[in-house]
Amino acid sequence: MTTDTTTTATDEVADLLPMVQQDPWLTPFEPVLRARQQRLQQRLDEIRQQCGSLSKFALAHQRLGLNYDARRKGYWFREWAPAAEALYLIGDFNGWDRQATPLTRGTDGVWEVFLADKEYQNRFTHHSLFKVHVVTSKGSKDRLPATLRRAVQNSETHDFAGQVWRPETAFEWTDQKFRIPNCVREPFIYEAHVGMATEEGRIGTYLEFAEHLLPRIQAEGYNCLQLMAIMEHPYYGSFGYHVANFFAVSSRFGTPEELKHLINEAHRRGIAVLLDVVHSHAVKNEAEGLADFDGSGGQYFHEGERGSHPGWDSKLFDYGKPEVQQFLLSNVRYWLEEFHFDGFRFDGITSMLYHHHGEGVAFGSYEQYFGADADDDAILYLQLVTTLVRELKRSAILIAEDMSGMPGLCRPIEEGGIGFDYRLGMGIPDYWIKLLKHTRDEDWNLHDLWHVLTNRRLGEKTVAYAESHDQALVGDKTLAHWLLDKAIYEHMHKDDPDPIAARGIALHKLIRLITLSLGGEAYLNFIGNEFGHPEWVDFPRQGNDWSYHFARRQWSLADNPDLKFQYLLRFDQEMIKVAKATRLLSPTAAGIARELNIDTNNQVLIFERGNLLFVFSFHVDRSVPDYRFYVPLGGRYRILLNSDDTQFGGFGRIDNSLTYETFEEDGVNKLSLYVTSRTALVLTRI
């Protein structure tokens, strides 16, 4: 009987989804996870019956919008607007005559017109401007097409129009040998905004970024570039998160070919490029965006109150509608194939996952993830998009911005998950800011610190970061600014012994290193913060008299040999070099960190990860000459990285050339080190 019972219990566990086997607390919700799998399979079956495959379903952009037909010699223009009464193509090619070029409605709600070269080749050409005039039961408006590839803004009227974009010579890619797995074993991500990447008070360009920023990113050791604000948005100050034209490369920074040049050059340097994609909402502007396009009040978005985000003042997609699924999936395919992006960081996932959008909700129980608050249509869409990306580019990197902790978000669909690779560790930067705002250095709780940095779901990879663009926005301050305050302007000369600056520089290094080494399986840095950029980000707006002063990066600070910013940059480079060389973030090569010692009296935290020992002293002034602690493996050790080294702006209190041999004490292996205040040491066994 005992054998039979054991066998039955074993069989029951084996029948559970891998996610549930790993986390028994999910057992009551396995029916929900399986229902999600079944719904996805049902939708995939429907799509395959309709289109042959999911990847073919995601080709709407090759039919809709403006597409050149080389066989028939002319342009097709098509628009999905099922509730519209009439559509007309207007532009400089027909004198913006709202009656001259009507479209014909198809049975599927798609309107179309063909512009033959024999009639239009001399007036509908590369750079021609156009819009679509939409007549609805509510009236008529000039609109930008939904799948518009290029929108340009009139500098005088500030009005956006579509622009025909068909250069005589196609861009020639030279990245055929670039392979993501060869260059990105673990992601070290450089989050950047092209427009604010120059030091001058203006908008930077794709070409300038390729020429000046890519060499920096490569030299600093980052292997992933995450680009913000690429999808066209009418308001520059939205940081690119209020998208109007989902298929259009932002013309503020240059042309589509110039973006392709940037990506091609990144690949030449061994850097993968991720797109910060916004499918969580859309700008509510009707003149530039999709809102109420066909006059139905919905179409791409939910109708009524459900179609508006209460906190973002934007429109919310109806993810359950097949045409919306097709629009967004086609958008993903377009960016992957047309621009050779290597993956995506999906913005605002929390808002998508729940009907309440995560607003004012504290996630404290599993019921919240699997109950009525979960948006099944959005979850289905996310499963569709991760499935599509795997079909098109198996090694692409998928990152989800979710603060709710949805179980399985970053597990394969077949295991019960949603299919992303990484989630952003959003609690980590919030913790650092809260700590610096409200707690004296002397009162830091190392047990809390350890918990925050290691508290993540087993089997789901996390992108750790001390600060991203969120922490740098006006109204908050960068870590460097929190640490240094006005000393960042007054006491950064390398010969200035100011204690506030010394404290800030020391903690900046410790915070970044412990975040990288404990917080996840990937690491992210926001442009300029690697050297302690002194100021927040504030884009031109009425409130700052349309100034670009805070929408730029002061690279000269990092390059000035007389300033201390160089020390932070040098430490960041060395930190990443060590982490990459030792595969520190690899779930298989290094695994998770193991706590060895938390000493609240001396404010010392010691742990191992992979083959490395990490010794952090957060004490404000105490240095211990003979600090003894347990190590799992006996032998000789040497220092790989020392934050107190003078080349990193430290005091040089530790001799990096020394080797340390373990000794037996109390029946265990121990090391003895000189542990100096506000210092981090990384050691390896030799």
Question: What do you see in this structure?
Answer:
The protein is an alpha+beta fold. Among the domains are: about 60-165, Sandwich (Immunoglobulin-like); about 595-685, Immunoglobulin-like, CATH 2.60.40. The strands form 7 sheets. Strands 10-11-14-18-19-20-21-22 form an 8-stranded parallel barrel. A 6-stranded antiparallel β-sheet has the order 23-24-25-31-27-28.
Low-confidence region ranges: none
Distance between the termini: 54 Å
Strand % is: 15-25%
CATH homologous superfamily title of the domain at 60-164: Immunoglobulins
The main β sheet shows up as:
8 strands, parallel, barrel
- Sum up the overall morphology in one term: globular
Helicity level, as a percent range?
25-40%
- CATH fold type of the domain at 60-164: Immunoglobulin-like
* Biggest sheet strand line-up: 10-11-14-18-19-20-21-22
Average of pLDDT? 96
Total strand count, please? Answer: 31
CATH-scheme architecture of the domain at 60-164:
Sandwich
Count of individual helical segments: 20
Structural class: alpha+beta
